Amino acid sequence: MKISFENPDKVNGLMTITVEEADYKDEVEKTLKDYRKHANVPGFRPGQVPMGLVKRQYGMQVKMDTINKILGENLQKYIADNKIQMLGQPLAPEAGEAVDLEKAAPYEFKFDIAVAPEFNIELSGKNKVDYYEIAVDDKLIDQQVEMFRSRAGHYDKAETFDPEQRDMLKGDLRELDENGNTLEGGITVEGASMMPQYIKVEDQKKLFDGAKLGDIITFNPTAAYPDNDIEVSSLLKIKKEEVAEHKGNFSYQITEISRFVKAENNAELWNGVYGEEAGIKDEAGFRKAIADGLKEQLKGDSDYRFIQDLRAYCEKKVGKLTFPDALLKRIMLANNKDKGEEFVEKNYEQSIRELTWHLIKQQLAAAHGIKVEDNDVRESARQMARAQFAQYGMTNVPDDYLNGYADDMLKKRENIDSFVEAALDRKLAAAVKEIVKLNVKSVSLEEFNKLVSEQ
Asked: Are 377 and 410 contacting, i.e. CB atoms less than 8 angstroms apart?
């Protein structure tokens, strides 16, 4: 077997592999003998089928499979041995003729290879990159305390409706006729729940102001929730398609008023958030636990922003790279056959920006000995699980439950790449922060969020 590689412009490569009969003959013969042992052909006992018949029936397919296997193995070996940084997969030349395996060997196969552009990115203490440190101040801690109080809150009974208190009403709905009387055969819903403060139309909303237990309010659901048939159908317990048939007034007799009450800021709340094992004895300890948690959480946000700033810094330092555009577009099209050329043209520039950053990250990781291990990927899944639980105020999730949730996410192949990238970003941020000079800027969370939104 002969392999040659031409790379005149450094990014467009042409690999030529010449396959001789000796390269595949023994493997083909061995495979056909195995086929003969198991071939089930009428008129012949197992293992007694004439080899000539086996070759006529399976010979060409076995030959093709064997040559394809040899090509794949040798192509990848040559690329690895010669440290060629291939982008995407090899493609047959557009103008190339198909190799006729019916003819005698040798066979010459050609492959277009997209090669990554050469560049060099080095970082040292001479490089200065912004790092936004989010300040955990009393205002932020107060907001977190109120969030925990709200999540642990409950509803008490009340006598008078107050929209400012997030009151919830329960009552009986009855459809009325044009004279304001209960419509015979009309809609009746007992125990219908409402939060009038969310009514979209002001004059309908005001009908409930100061309402008391037992009061009967006359209002129009379709007028209260215009252009929202789903809301109306949910309230009236009918199908969305039926809303148009019930556009009149309804009476609503209030049978219950529930008022939301935030949880007290006491030991019950502290233990509910952090667990008794945290040993929080007073409000100061609770606020400290919140501050510590916020610092750790916001450190992740700061590191994420740091990676974005590092990316911009490195991309500017590297400059515009030359890629084999025509070949990469062919590769992109081959991977998105169902989406067509329009998709490729629309998304190509963004894919090149992502590819450039990926190559920069690879070079930085190699330069600083950064490797992503299985445990790093698992930690990314754990962090994702922890963040999802935190959205619901669950900050003291047991490790075994957290690990189980992470394991479930890792079972889905589509999640792995994002977890690998997250792990690489995390390790890269930690390493580069020790190398470059950080231009530390202390900002509030509000200021930080504004910075992120402006990216």
From this structure: yes
